[in-house]
Amino acid sequence: MATVYLTRSGYERLDAELRELLEVRRPQVMSDLTQAREYGDIRENAEYETAKRDQGLTEGRIHELEALLASVQILEVPPELDEVVLGARLTVENLDFGQTRAYKLVSEPEAHLEEDYLSVESPLGAALLGGKVGEVVTFEAPAGTRRFKILELSGDTEAQEV
To answer: Which CATH number applies to 4-74?
Structure first.
């Protein structure tokens, strides 16, 4: 797998999810599977089918996280930036709607809009990459061209290699 760049907090969040899956969810799924087998014929056993599905989803996510975390490099972003880079914190104004919002530009595995972590692979994230304070960036959305002005930009101090 190629190198995946994450912020320190993104790495810690994914690592905590992996530990939760290994230490809590996997044993619970195995317990549910054992209990469902005790109900009898597994060919017509909805609880068994549900437990098997949960086992597959859990194991799949465990393998996905293990592979991802094995190829992580923690972003090293200087505290002051001249342009938007992966790991930057920025404030932008949506010129079409007059709304201001702060983001942290991150890689796809740690993107989480509810926490204002914007993926560099999203249309807005890709448009912002390389931008400077005061610049207006545009991108095409399903509803038409969108315009955002970069108001503030700063780096981060989470930089350390895993």
So the answer is: 1.10.287.180
